[in-house]
């Protein structure tokens, strides 16, 4: 492919066969530097030969220019005499400047004679034709004239190098190159006149800001798919919650240590309790079960929910009719010192099954299926205690290279709670902490990386094809 | 969950088992153990089992699981000569006492006994508010009559770990326990006190004992007082204490009580819960025979009477956590071992579905990725200095970085961008997330708000750079979109538009004000847009 300038130069050379770089520059109006670089390219491509030649150049000195304009001294002398004899002293006075030089050259050229103190002209008039021509075109002058001009310091001599460009490959189809194909070129068919310039296809491309999904959000969505595929319906509720749903409905005594101020984030204000019948039943449940005076004021206190079981409590408060399989995935908030394994806001997956004759073994089977869906193939069950479930169980999952890790708390809902919400069948519920599980499954050393605020971390994260299982 | 440190060898020697067997058995009692050093282990105990907070409670339970002993552990009680008179103490009305005789305390056991007392204070005792315990060396008490009454603040005694007499006021003000627990039961400038009939103070519940009755390794007999605000909790606590000490070999001595609620203690309360085999099997999904259920309950240290259709289970004093037959059902399951209850095969019987929130979130995420935005994930909690309009503050934040809940995704997005100025430009990011706003319709007065925020940060950005993708994301959803001049605290006036559809404002778009960029030390211009997905959901 030839560039525009390459084509111009080749077309010029087609006409003149050869020329100097300077001349080509002048003729084609391309800078001399461009001519040099393009000639190098054309030489490499085999179109031309480039020959370096020395050329001699003559330049007029200031004196040379002056003589050419006002006459050489011997001319002035001869023409002053005008063919008549005269006294040397008179003429010296008349000419003054360069008289001695004029006298010397006029004598040497045989233009005058001197007899005692008198100048005798041998010609009437004189013009130094050879010298004048030589001064105008030194490159065509005879050698002896050049010698004379040099010795008289009318000119100086300079040696210069120049490149001679000579066409050596005649049979070429020369097309100018272009970078971009345009709709105009394609529509008009003019693209045929051009060649498409080569790219450096082996170079890396510039940065491109790819649109990418967040890996942890994607993990949460995948969990929702697992639950949906198992026949669960998704529910949600808001972050700000009344203690009634976060604790009271779940049979958590009002003086339970987990309800102390430092274990949840409080919000000022007061909520409105739902239907009075439910409130009465919850009160009765607490007073019979835990043997203390239940305070409705405490139940209306506001907080950032500390467990998504609050959503489960809301589903229960709606007195669902079986069969129901429900789940929620959402944020929960707990005061803690933030470090590599602790966050103050994180996610839980809570589930609820309300079904006639739902047994503890059914619950274990459900948990096994869910963990299998998440990718935890090996689990074991440990007896546990939660105020709102009985029997209660903790699920431990096996993580490669780490061993057994506690992953979930679960159980059958206590009959007292089912009675309070007037549900006449059995029910199982569970909560799974998601962030720490994700951290283990992603192999992260620091849980805060799930919320990394470094975009390069997000851009550079390898996408795991198994994440789309 | 509370943990206790235990001298390992006593446990292994008494039970004649090895460490891994112990670990398995503890697992079935809801507990986990981990080694501390060669001689000690840490055991995690669940909140419903205060009886396991002392090594002898653990031994009693495990003996059942190993079938070394079955049924209720019964401990003889003998009369003592001691009288405990409860006067009116308004701030802490209930008190009981008991005697334990004939125990041997070595250094380890003494430590564990004090640890037991402390763990009971934290759990059942609700940090001594509900229940507090005083354990005294009985031999150092000079009278047979002991009073529970109140004293004035200038009353004097020598508190534990002190060598000089102090007034009650000084004890409350200058000792660690006084500072921590002094205010719990101080009422009318009087403190509850347990004293000999000669007026010498034995303890100042719920704060501190006297130095006079300090326990040591030479102590063989104990006087135990339990005071509190709940009679039920006081009874349970004393029962759990004395039955544990009796399991250790002590003899329980009964104290005569002068009080409105009982005339002797410990109460050693028993109750009965009836349970049917059918119920157990229905809850667990099993087919366990009656004889096996009886056996499992005995292994769990309950006495059982076979009533034919039902079993009558006697709940011993140390198991105040058993309220109903569901609790006994769990005992059966635990005794069998959860690993022996095979999970049922899962059957899909309902159709699953996703919430509208999830559906719109997924659609928006897909479209946003298509428009070359990278998804970010920030916290809902933030610092309130960047928040505008009405927002929710946390009453008890733990750090100023997270003292409020965002009501818009713009501030958390700006914080994210401020941390990414040295990354490769352009930065094109988005987030779908929630904030909280006030709401008259909700029970709490607040509601979540689902938004999506888009931002482009580069050395040069324009309104249109962002308007184009946002516009085509919105029109993809079938919305007719209009833009109207708008003012916004974050955005440059004249370069801000409200985004409308069907005359509803569904979002905002504009360039961030330079003064905000300056405040956040951001040296690049940002164009941002926030779309209100709850509004969009209503239009779709």
Describe the structure.
The complex is a heterodimer of chains A (469) and B (540). Helix content of chain A is 37%, strand content 25%. In chain A, strand 15 (379-386) and strand 16 form a beta hairpin. Chain A has 2 domains: 4-60 and 159-196, Winged helix-like DNA-binding domain superfamily/Winged helix DNA-binding domain (Arc Repressor Mutant, subunit A, Orthogonal Bundle); 215-468, 2-Layer Sandwich (BirA Bifunctional Protein, domain 2), CATH 3.30.930. Chain A is built from 19 helices and 18 strands. Chain B folds into 4 domains: 3-65, Phenylalanyl-tRNA Synthetase, Chain B, domain 1; 77-265, Phenylalanyl-tRNA Synthetase, Chain B, domain 3 (3-Layer(bba) Sandwich), CATH 3.50.40; 271-336, Phenylalanyl-tRNA Synthetase, Chain B, domain 1; 356-539, Bira Bifunctional Protein, Domain 2 (BirA Bifunctional Protein, domain 2, 2-Layer Sandwich), CATH 3.30.930.10. In chain B, a hairpin with a 7-residue loop joins strand 23 (427-438) and strand 24 (446-457). Chain B is elongated, with a radius of gyration of 33 Å. The model of chain B has no long low-confidence stretch (mean pLDDT 95). In chain B, helix 3 (55-65) crosses helix 7 (231-247) and helix 9 (290-299) packs across helix 10. With 540 residues, chain B is α+β, with helices and mostly antiparallel strands.
Please describe the topology of this protein.
The complex is a heterodimer of chains A (469) and B (540).
Chain A: H1 4-16, E1 18-20, H2 21-28, H3 32-44, E2 48-60, H4 62-70, H5 73-81, E3 86-87, H6 88-95, H7 99-108, E4 112-115, E5 118-121, H8 129-136, H9 143-151, E6 155-167, E7 177-178, H10 183-188, E8 195-196, H11 215-229, E9 233-234, E10 240-242, H12 243-246, E11 266-270, H13 276-290, H14 296-299, E12 301-304, H15 309-317, E13 324-333, E14 345-355, H16 360-374, E15 379-386, E16 389-399, E17 403-413, H17 415-420, E18 426-433, H18 435-441, H19 455-460
Parallel strand pairs in A: 7-8, 9-13
Antiparallel strand pairs in A: 1-6, 2-6, 3-5, 4-5, 10-12, 11-12, 13-14, 14-18, 15-16, 16-17, 17-18
Chain B: E1 3-7, H1 8-15, H2 19-28, E2 32-35, E3 40-44, H3 55-65, E4 77-86, E5 94-101, H4 107-122, E6 131-137, E7 145-152, E8 156-157, E9 166-167, H5 168-174, H6 176-181, E10 190-196, E11 201-204, E12 208-209, E13 222-228, H7 231-247, E14 251-258, E15 264-265, E16 271-276, H8 277-284, H9 290-299, E17 303-306, E18 310-315, H10 325-336, H11 356-370, E19 374-375, E20 381-382, E21 392-393, E22 404-405, H12 410-418, E23 427-438, E24 446-457, H13 463-476, E25 482-485, E26 491-501, E27 504-512, H14 514-519, E28 526-532, H15 533-539
Parallel strand pairs in B: 4-7, 4-14, 19-23
Antiparallel strand pairs in B: 1-3, 2-3, 5-13, 5-14, 6-13, 7-10, 8-9, 10-11, 11-12, 14-15, 16-18, 17-18, 20-22, 21-22, 23-24, 24-28, 25-26, 26-27, 27-28
């Amino acid at each position: 492919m030839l560039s525009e300038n390459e084509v111009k130069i080749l077309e010029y050379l087609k006409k003149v066969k050869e020329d100097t770089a300077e001349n080509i520059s002048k003729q084609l109006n391309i800078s001399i530097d461009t001519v040099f670089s393009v000639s190098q390219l054309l030489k490499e491509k085999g179109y031309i030969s480039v020959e370096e030649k020395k050329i001699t150049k003559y330049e007029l000195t200031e004196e040379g220019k002056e003589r050419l304009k006002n006459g050489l001294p011997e001319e002035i002398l001869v023409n002053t005499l005008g063919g008549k004899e005269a006294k040397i002293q008179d003429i010296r006075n008349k000419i003054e400047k360069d008289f001695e030089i004029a006298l010397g050259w006029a004598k040497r050229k045989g233009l005058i004679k001197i007899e005692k103190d008198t100048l005798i002209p041998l010609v009437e008039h004189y013009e130094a034709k050879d010298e004048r021509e030589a001064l105008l075109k030194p490159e065509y002058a005879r050698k002896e004239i050049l010698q004379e001009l040099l010795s008289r310091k009318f000119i100086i001599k300079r040696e210069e190098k120049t490149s001679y460009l000579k066409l050596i490959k005649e049979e070429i189809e020369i097309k100018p190159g272009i970078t971009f194909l345009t709709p105009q070129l394609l529509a008009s068919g003019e693209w045929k006149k051009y060649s498409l310039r080569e790219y450096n296809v082996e170079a890396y491309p510039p940065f491109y800001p790819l649109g990418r999904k967040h890996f942890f959000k994607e993990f949460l969505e995948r969990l929702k798919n697992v639950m949906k595929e198992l026949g669960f319906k998704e529910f949600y509720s808001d972050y700000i919650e009344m203690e009634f749903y976060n604790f009271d409905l779940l049979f958590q005594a009002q003086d339970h240590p987990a309800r102390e101020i430092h274990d949840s984030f409080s919000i000022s204000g007061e909520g409105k309790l739902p239907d009075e019948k439910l409130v009465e039943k919850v009160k009765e449940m607490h007073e019979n079960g835990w043997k203390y005076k239940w305070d409705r004021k405490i139940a209306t206190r506001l907080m950032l929910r500390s467990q998504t079981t609050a959503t489960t409590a809301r589903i229960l408060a709606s007195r669902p009719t079986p069969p129901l399989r429900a789940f929620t995935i959402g944020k929960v908030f707990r005061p803690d010192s933030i470090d590599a394994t602790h966050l103050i806001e994180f996610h839980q997956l809570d589930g609820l099954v309300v079904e006639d004759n739902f047994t503890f073994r059914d619950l274990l089977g459900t948990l096994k299926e869910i963990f299998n869906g998440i990718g935890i193939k090996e689990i074991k069950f440990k007896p546990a205690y939660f105020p709102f479930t009985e029997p209660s169980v903790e699920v431990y999952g096996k993580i490669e290279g780490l061993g057994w890790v506690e992953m979930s708390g679960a159980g059958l809902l206590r009959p007292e709670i089912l009675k309070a919400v007037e549900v006449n069948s059995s029910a199982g519920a569970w909560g799974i902490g998601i962030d720490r599980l994700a951290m283990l499954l992603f192999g992260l050393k620091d849980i805060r990386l799930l919320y990394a605020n470094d975009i390069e971390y997000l851009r550079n994260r390898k996408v795991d094809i198994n994440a789309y299982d | 969950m509370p943990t206790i440190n235990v001298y390992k060898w006593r446990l292994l020697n008494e039970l004649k088992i090895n460490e891994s067997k112990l670990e398995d058995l503890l697992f079935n009692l809801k507990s986990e153990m981990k080694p501390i050093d060669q001689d000690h282990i840490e055991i995690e105990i669940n909140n419903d089992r205060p009886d396991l907070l002392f090594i002898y409670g653990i031994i009693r339970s495990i003996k059942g699981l190993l079938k070394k002993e079955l049924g209720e552990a019964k401990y003889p009680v003998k009369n003592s000569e001691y009288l405990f008179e409860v006067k009116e103490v308004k701030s802490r009305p209930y008190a009981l006492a008991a005697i334990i005789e004939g125990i041997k305390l070595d250094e380890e056991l003494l430590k564990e006994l004090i640890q037991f007392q402390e763990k009971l204070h934290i759990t059942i005792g609700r940090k001594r508010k509900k229940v507090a315990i005083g354990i005294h060396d009985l031999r150092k008490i000079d009278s047979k009559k002991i009073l529970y009454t109140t004293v004035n603040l200038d009353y004097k005694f020598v508190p534990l770990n002190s060598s000089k007499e102090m007034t009650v006021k000084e004890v409350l003000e200058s000792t660690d326990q006084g500072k921590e627990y002094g205010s719990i039961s101080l009422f009318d400038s009087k403190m509850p006190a347990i004293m000999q009939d000669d007026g010498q103070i034995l303890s100042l519940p719920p704060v501190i004992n006297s130095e006079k009755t300090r326990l040591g390794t030479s102590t063989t007999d104990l006087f135990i007082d339990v005071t509190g605000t709940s009679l039920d909790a006081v009874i349970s606590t004393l029962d759990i204490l004395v039955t544990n000490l009796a399991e250790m070999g002590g003899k329980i001595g009964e104290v005569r009580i002068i009080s409105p609620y009982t005339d002797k203690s410990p109460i050693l309360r028993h109750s009965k819960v009836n349970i049917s085999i059918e119920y157990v099997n229905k809850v667990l999904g099993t087919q366990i025979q009656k004889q096996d259920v009886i056996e499992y309950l005995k292994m769990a240290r309950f006495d059982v009477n076979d009533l034919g259709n039902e079993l009558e289970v006697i709940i011993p004093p140390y198991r105040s956590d058993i309220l109903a037959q569901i609790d006994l059902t769990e005992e059966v399951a635990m005794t069998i071992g959860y690993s022996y209850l095979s999970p049922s095969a899962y059957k899909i019987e309902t159709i699953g579905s996703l919430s509208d929130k999830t559906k719109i979130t997924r659609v928006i995420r897909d479209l946003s990725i298509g428009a070359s935005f990278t998804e970010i994930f920030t916290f809902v909690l933030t610092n309130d200095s960047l928040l505008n309009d009405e927002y929710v503050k946390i009453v008890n934040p733990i750090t100023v970085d997270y003292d409020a809940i965002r009501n818009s995704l713009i501030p958390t997005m700006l914080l994210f961008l401020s941390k990414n100025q040295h990354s490769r430009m352009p930065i094109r990011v988005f987030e779908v997330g929630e904030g909280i706003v006030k709401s008259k319709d909700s029970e709490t007065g607040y509601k979540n708000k689902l938004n999506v925020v888009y931002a482009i940060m580069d050395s040069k950005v324009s309104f249109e750079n962002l308007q184009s993708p946002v516009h085509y994301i919105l029109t993809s959803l079938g919305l007719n979109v209009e833009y109207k001049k708008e003012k916004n605290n974050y955005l440059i006036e004249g370069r801000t538009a409200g985004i409308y559809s069907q005359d509803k404002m569904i979002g905002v778009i504009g360039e961030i004000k330079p003064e905000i960029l300056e405040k956040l030390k951001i040296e690049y211009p940002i164009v941002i847009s926030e779309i209100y997905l709850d509004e969009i959901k209503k239009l779709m």
